[in-house]
Amino acid sequence: MSDASVPANILLAVPEATLRTQSTPTAGTVYLQYLSVTTPPESVPVASEANRSVYLVVRLNDVEFPIDPSRPIARHITPDGTHVYTFTLDGPAAQSLGLKGDSVPISLSLMGLPDPARKDAIETFDQILGQYAGWEGVSGDVQQPTGLNMQEDAGKPADLRGRLVLMDESTGEMVGEVPNQLPIHEDPALEGIDKTEGAKDVAHAAPVVLELPPDLYDAYTGQQPSEAESVAAAELSEAREIFVRAVPPEQQDWIMKSASLVSRGIDSSTSLLVRGMSSASQYYIKHSTPYSPNTPDGKRVPPSRMATLLTHPTTHTALGYAHTASGHAARVSAKTVELVQGMISRAMSARSKTATSAPPQPVCPAPVGSPTSTPNLAPVVPYSTYPLPSSEKPPLPPRRDGSKSPAPPLPPRSPSKSPAPLPASHSPPSNAAAGPSPPPLPLRTRDRLALSANLVLAAVDESTTRLLDAGTAQLGVVVGHRYGPGVARSTTLAAGTARNVVLVYVDVRGFARRAIIKRVGKEFVKGRVASFRTRRQSPLRRNNTVWNYMSSGNPTRK
């Protein structure tokens, strides 16, 4: 295979990295690249429409090696914040680096520094590797970054409990609150998961998924609901509730990492970015006095205190750095989403080929929470019932699942390998009614990617980014008209840092949890309407006992 047929793209570059092999350690900037490789024709099934696969490659100075997607990566964080990744190379890959052995470990260390841009780059590095190959063990010995320390005893007001707040991801400072007048129902499993993870001692809070009604989701993200998904106003008013679903411990890392863009798309300027912002800014410019440093009598007017602050060179430097860091994160995240989209398309393509032997499962309302007596919340299967967006890339062949056999040289993949069949739970219907279904099998990577499709791609829309950029530009024009170009530049830079704002849900116990928003479908809303009407006919609030209703209509005592 010639080099010209394997175009490489740099996903991420992180300086001050150290690569350790059997020889002398190598230090420098590490580049994470991906290659789009053409699969040999003899290894592609006749019915398959895809003939290209994606591989990740690590390069540091003269050392370059592909990452085998079937070999999980060991990950560790030292007390000083250094991230250490251990890759296992097979014989051919090790020989290409002059190393001996059939299974050779090679470690990569990324030093932790108090730099917001670097922290974001390392987080993105984790995101890419975790979705490509996965981590050894359930969660490894990595400190999960999904919980924020904002308990009741940390000085936060108690009235924030059960509220959605906006927090600066780099500093932990609360920068705003998302207004909502809807009742919020928590999954009772949240407390159980926290106890399992030791949250009582380490102040760790599990992340959550917020299931929003369609109109509320569109209001938060600045999107317009489609006519095909609109629901009657009377029904929608009955179903306007927010459900907070717990994320199982074994799924916290990949769900939160893959959906990192969702929370970034929400910022404190949502009200400014709604429709009509351009005409409103033009109206203000036409009906207000433009900026002028002099008065009509020729005397120079001293600048206001705010203008002095925004035009100070130190302010420009600080805002420029923050804006650059935000833009870097957005560009990297956009490429990462493209890579994840390709993997999800590949997984869905494999699932569709095997679905011909099994009847389609009915689409039904998805339960929001599992009973508290179930300690291990297994696969979040309801997420896979919702359709994928129509703007996907062409499907790619499924990546190899884990195998104990030696991995072939990368790239390309060995022609003898073929996608593994789906678990036995996807058997024909004749076996489905024979008795109780077997316990769920552990999720493989391609199944996890398929289940996360609606969490990642259905909620991430380019229109959110375009609205953010458009709102920033209009705000800069208005401020520049009133206070001058210096203030306008600082305003534009400050608005650009909104990409660092994340959505946080403060639960009833005072724990702040990283939140993902999810737009529920039309059938899901209908299920809630039926549940709401049943609840209205048979109220279950007795003796000051509060019952939480999940989407299935079954009450859960809290």
Structural topology:
Layout lengths: L7 E13 L5 E13 L13 E9 L2 E4 L7 E4 L5 E8 H6 L6 E8 L5 H17 L14 E2 L14 E6 L5 E5 L5 E3 L2 H8 L2 H4 L5 E5 L1 H8 L11 H6 L3 E5 L5 H7 L1 H5 L12 H10 L18 H6 L2 H42 L74 H4 L12 H7 L1 H4 L5 H22 L1 H12 L4 E6 L5 E8 L2 H16 L9 E3 L5 E3 L1
Helix pairs in contact: 2-7, 2-11, 9-15, 11-13, 11-16, 15-16
Structure description:
With 558 residues, the protein is α+β, with helices and mostly antiparallel strands. The chain has a domain at 3-132: PH-domain like, CATH 2.30.29. Helices cover 33% and strands 19% of the residues. It is built from 17 helices and 17 strands. The chain has helices spanning 91-96, 116-132, 189-196, 199-202, 214-221, 233-238, 252-258, 260-264, 277-286, 305-310, 313-354, 429-432, 445-451, 453-456, 462-483, 485-496, 522-537; strands at 8-20, 26-38, 52-60, 63-66, 74-77, 83-90, 103-110, 147-148, 163-168, 174-178, 184-186, 208-212, 242-246, 501-506, 512-519, 547-549, 555-557. The strands form three sheets. Strands 8, 9, 10, 11, 12, 13, 14 and 15 form an eight-stranded mixed beta sheet that branches. It has a seven-stranded antiparallel beta sheet with strand order 4-3-2-1-7-6-5. Strands 16-17 form a two-stranded antiparallel sheet. β16 and β17 form a beta hairpin. The longest helix has 42 residues, at 313-354. It is extended. The N terminus and C terminus are likely disordered.
